[in-house]
Protein 1
Amino acid sequence: MAREVVRFKDVAGKDILWPNFEGRAGDYNNPGERNFCLRLTEEEYHQLLDAGYTSPKEKVRMTEDGEEYVNRYIPIKVNFNSQRPPQIHQVTRRGLVKLDEDSCALIDRNNIKKASIAFTPYYRKVSNTQTAYLQEMLVEFEEESFADEYLNDHFSSGDEA
């Protein structure tokens, strides 16, 4: 039976929360667990709940100005030790670069400009929960200023001939 794939296109970098593609241990993470969270709109949050996901979170937060807002997100697990490991690609000026289990840690250390994300559910009968697992991701990083300047200066649009 095919699992339903949930897709989010052109996600702003600020909506990818707490990326841990490296799997480093922390206060909220066991060593080796790779994951991140995806910020949701209220509509997306309710759609995932209606689809049976038990993992979307909704927490009240405060802005620096002291105003309350609701932070909605879904944790997404990244598992390379599965029958269908995630396909993760970095979008560059030269095309796509495939990131593997080791190189995907770049996502943790770079500013994400935007991404497209696809995940599938995994249902656990014992705990009666449904968890999101990353299936595919295209990620574009913000360009470094010196690298961007170099590329513009040395690879301009065909002025040299």
Protein 2
Amino acid sequence: MRRGLLLPLLVVTALFAFVGEALGATITNGGFETGDFTGWTTADQSGGSGSWFVYSETSLPSESCTNPGTAPQSPPQGTYAATTDQSGPGSHVLYQDITLEAGAKHTLSFELYYNSVGAFASPATLDYTVTPNQQYRVDVMRPTASPFSVAPSDILEALYQTTTSSPGTLAPTTMTFDLSAFAGQTVLLRFAEADNQGCFLAGVDNVQIASTPSVQTGAATNVTDSGATLNGTVDPDGQATTYHFDYGTSPNYGQQVPASDASVGSDSTSHSESQALSGLLPNTTYHFRIVATNASGTTDGADQTFTTAAAPVVTKVAAPGVTTEAASDIFARAATLNGVVNPENAATTYYFEYGTSAYYGHRAPASAASVGSDATGHSESQHVSGLKPHTTYHFRIVATNSSGTTYGPDQKFTTASAKLSLSVAPGSAEAGTLACFKFKAASNGQPVAGVTVQFAGRKARTSSKGTATVCATLADGTYRPTATRKGFTRVHATVDIFTPRFTG
């Protein structure tokens, strides 16, 4: 390699047009298989010799290092690779912007190799006019930085650099670096070579970015006291991808949904994914995250939390509270039954049971009536008729809700005696003469059978027509026959027996 006087540092000139910014976490033309620098930018320090070249076994650079000197090593993969070549001192960079999607892990890999005739020296500059300067370096840089800068503020991460102890020849070597720290950013990937100590063929091939899925944990929705919906997004980044949600009461999670990972697809589109949870504890904070996996690895979304609602206040429902109260408006054949019902916060119905014994046998109303569903005592009444006069009746109130049926205590009442009337014909008769008297017993205008009529020491019982006849010879006077029957009031009639007066 011919060496001459070192040239002063001049303005950096891009020798190959940059073709667009890489979309997503991809390297454009990372294997140089287009046969050119599509997707890349090359730049050479002004005044220097040489540049970056795309070459193959049959198409080598034309600079003096390789023609008629030693050719660069064969492309590690495919047909083409990139190398520097020069005929004198120079400084050369090859770079490309990379956009690293947020929420994913990104692994950069490339095949690096070189042949250096001169000894390595790595000053903190790429200026080939600084002697000695024979180095090869790979850096992740700020996209706004000068491609020749080595300022610490411009270099985000130094990936590789030769040192004075580096061997003069490096066979194609796969190098891998984790760029996940720069997820969500656009960075500049630079391959830089400086030479002023002899021929230097710096090569690179098969530059790739492998990205795990891009994920984002969203906010939980539909949060109740026992359930929630977990939300998130997944971008498969062009590879077959599956996902699930981790969740639990701590950042250690411990549970996942679905139980087996679900497929997202293999495109490069953001997919909204959701999973519904049930059976959660009330008033409890839960942690969750979305997790997606493809052939490049697994991405864990950021931790999110939600707190379930407090359990609803459940009012304990008891069977109704009931009290049987005294009957009122008691007549010979009717009465009003009374009681109190407390629904105890549940829909409640009631009725009264009644009868002439504690076995009851009758109810009112025939179909149970509604009380309501509050927790207040309600006074309830039912009028019953068709009762027997002067008879003792038992009754109680009965109420039912979803928790059961409550029977009120037994109460008793006795109906009043029925009013009885007694008429007699004739109402008078001659003394000393046998006379027959017809009695008629009635109540409310209806004949009453079985009434015992007592008159002049004799007894007679009324028929179904309410009539009875007593015949007797009586002395002069006023008589008060009586009529009695259980359940009826005792009544009297009046019969006058007289002695006729004769006038002459």
Protein 3
Amino acid sequence: MKTHGRSTRWLVMALAIVFINTGLLTQPLPNFSGTWVPIPGRAQPSFLPAGAGLTIRQDSKTIVVQQEEGLARTYRLDSEPTQHEEKESDVTHTVTARASWVGTKLTITEARQGWKRERTYFFDNGLQTELSITSATTLLHTRNGALTVSTIGPSTRVYRKGTAQF
């Protein structure tokens, strides 16, 4: 009898490994599509301004994030880089972006010379009605001949599904 119990245990473990390796036990990736408005008082640190709303469109291959200003950015969801142009003080910069999943959280990393920003999107509750976005920006610059690294963040904003106010 003991041999039969051991055989069953090994069979269950082998099947579990097969299911895990084939992705049959993984959670489905969330879809962040919708119009999102900031929840007052839910920004961390608390001194952050309320922030603007955003609209997200997502399919199996891309996610498009549109800020209140009307600026829409498209990112590939297969970890392949995308590029877009940003203008700052009459200088145009090429920004390389990459979106990657870690579990059910999506991190979008944007970088250009001397600058990197990471935003992580995730649902705060099981109902998928509260979207949290954690953001941090790293700046590399030279000050008095020395390389200086400055980090802004991390900061988190929480949004609820709503009607666009822009």
